[in-house]
Write a structure and sequence with these properties.
Layout: E1 9-16, H1 20-33, E2 38-41, E3 51-59, H2 63-74, E4 81-82, E5 84-89, E6 94-99, H3 103-116, H4 137-146, E7 158-164, E8 183-184, E9 187-193, E10 199-207
Antiparallel strand pairs: 1-3, 1-9, 2-7, 4-8, 5-6, 6-7, 9-10
Length: 208
């Protein structure tokens, strides 16, 4: 895989945005996790609750094509349930709120990959992004084929709540407050994301 992506390229993240009530609960849970051992927690402003469906790097001139294609794909989809199933700590030290991997989730991701991924930068030979860590052979295969390392079998619908510094991952999960984090999909947005995959600029909002 190539390193040091060109300056005229940007990671694009197509993500589900939970309703305000669910988003606020995610932020409250995340804020309660903040400590000297966390790299970041959600703040509801620059770091807010979102659920990535598809993410890849595009040259800046291809971004309008990616956004338009996402809109075309979403015209064919209806609202579906996003069922919260628990919490998960990744090998990359991210703590996530997990959601059921339903056929509806997979159909949405597959449609976005089919239509938007051909516009991505360097199909078949992607840049090694900072969020590809640790990077397994199956993740490498996904990145080459789709641009997104967590596509297909590796996809897990989730909202990232926090990331821990190396050596500071808790040995036990914290006591999570009672919260209703399930919701019905109603809004999907396309964002620019930084080199770590964190969204920062909304390009388009679609209501389902």
């Amino acid at each position: 895989m190539k390193k040091s992506p060109p300056e005229n390229s940007t990671i694009i993240n197509v993500c589900i945005i939970p309703p305000e009530k669910v988003g606020m609960q995610c932020v409250a849970i995340s804020q309660a996790l903040e400590s000297e051992g966390t790299m970041f927690v959600l703040d509801g402003k620059t770091k807010f609750a979102h659920m990535t469906v598809y993410m890849a790097r595009f040259t800046n001139e291809k971004i309008p094509d990616a956004v338009e294609t996402a809109g075309q794909v979403l015209k064919g989809f209806e609202r579906f349930a996003c069922d919260h199933t628990g919490y998960f700590m990744t090998e990359g030290r991210y703590l996530e709120a997990s959601y059921r991997k339903s056929p509806a989730f997979m159909a949405l991701q597959e449609a976005l990959i089919a239509k938007a991924s051909p516009y991505r930068l360097n199909p078949g030979n992607p840049f090694e992004e900072a969020y590809f860590t640790p990077y397994t052979p199956e993740q490498q295969k996904n990145a080459r084929e789709t641009g997104y390392d967590l596509a297909g079998n590796l996809y897990r619908p989730h909202v990232t709540l926090a990331r821990y510094k190396e050596g500071h991952v808790p040995e036990e999960f914290p006591a999570f407050p009672a919260a209703e984090l399930s919701f019905t999909l109603a809004k999907i947005c396309v964002y620019k994301a930084d080199n770590n995959g964190a969204v920062y600029e909304k390009l388009k909002e679609f209501l389902i």
